[in-house]
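**Archive record**
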Amino acid sequence: YGKNTIKFLRLHREGKKHFVKEVEVCAHLRLTSPQEYLEGNNSLVIPTDTIKNIVLVLAKKNGIPSLEQFAIDICNHFMTTFCQVAYVKTYVQEVPWQRLHEDGVPHIHSFICVPDGIRFCEAEQCRNGPLTVFAGIKDLKLMKTTQSGFEGFYKNEHTTLPERHDRILCGELFCKWSYGECKDFDFDCIWKKIRECILEAFSGPPDCGEYSPSYQKTVNCIQMLVLSRVSQVQVIEVVLNNTFYNVVDMKNLGLTNDKEVLVPVEAPYGSCACTLGRKKFFEA
């Protein structure tokens, strides 16, 4: 049980310069006894309102040095403070505020919300067990207008999809990775590096791009690049929900539409997902 959707803004001041973190937290506990379920005995139950207040107090006292560290702080607090807690899981996601720039100069106290993917993390721990940390990015919308196709796929009597060697590749990406054994990582630096890997693997070199024969191959390229460059990541899950665009037929309007005006296909949409990890992690 626990408290969901604990939303707050943490404002930090360094002289005239301000820093903000707006987050949403979900904190869930498992107690050592199920007596509140079986017997109606609430003597061990930590009220969800108390859970909310603890999260807010920790934000006030410790700040939010990184999303992952804040999630770890919450787990550590419940494990060290309450002997009746057997398991704690914390989810934290961030509102994408970025510092506003005017003529290239960063503003000291103004920010803009830029929807270029939502950062999130999870931390969970069992009593006498290891602390496990996951991080990720979701709702990241990506598009490239060429260097993508889909050909040579299996066909039968139900197949109507034509083969395409040049199409728009567009999708909404969800990516989540595990750090394995939690150490003193620079979580902010790692998250930014992984995000850069995702963008690079999706788009290819800026002057020419890179051909994608399928959404599945693009997912694999993202995973392989992250695992090759970020040694701290042990397992990475990627889900890519596809957005298709159809070329508008303008022949009855007396026009030739050479893939210049397209309309999105809202539903149904395709999706591909894969989890890839280091062999040593699965062997362990």
